[in-house]
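Section 5.1 Outputs to date
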Amino acid sequence: MRKLITLIITIACTLSVSAQKTISFEGADEVVRLWDNSTAKHSNHETRDEKWHKENVSYCQTSSCELYIFKAAADKNTGVAIAMFPGGSYRNGNLSVSLAKWYASQGITAALVKYRLPNYGHNKATLEDAEGAVRYLRTRTDLGINPAKVGVQGSSAGGHLASWVSNAMSDGEKPAFTILHYPWIDLAKSRSSAEASALRQLLGKRYTFNDALSLSTYTMVTSTTPPTLLFLCHDDSIVLSTNSTKYYKALIQHGVKASLHIYPSGGHSLNKHTNEYQPETIHWLQRVKIIEKR
């Protein structure tokens, strides 16, 4: 615990200069800018202007990292926080505002992370943003966040990033839990056109099989990987269900607490199963003792 407190103080001092807060983004309580290519350790070398579309919930060509924070309902605050990484084949980021609002309504502070896209191989900047989001949330004790209860969630390519950061961070820093929605896991056996596009974005236009294998997150799992909850649909034709089953198998082999839910239909989405997966998310967080039973 002393190590964690020291870490939090260090992070707070590091981020306080570059984190600038403004108000409002699709109902967000805060917009926190962590850094951009000129202030971060790594750059994604994006020089084009940032673009937003689909009513300002989808972005591309970004060269900065921002967090859109939805505060936990004051009367329900569990002390839990979650950094949410959007999918979009690593070419776009499709922010799930409705899911962030739902987490907040359940007493969980949610931060939608606008991470820097890898821009044909500059993936160190992308991982840096994911790690930075987790570290930053741990400093926000003023929001009632328990630094030991900061987790991550990701969908599709964002699921790859969430599983990546869950394994790439050091044992003392890893997220407290991981929630994956139809995640892209097995890069070396990608089949769909969306996966092929994501590979080029993540690894560059000239990558090898070993490059793809090295970032296939099922190969990264250890006994210190956080407890993980996975949701997906069997008929997903964009990211096959075998991605999740392979990750789940690796988790079980290493003794990590894990739960896998596969719905028979719904495609590359969970919209059809909102009334099922959302309550189960809360139940699972209770079972792994992240939040207390109500």
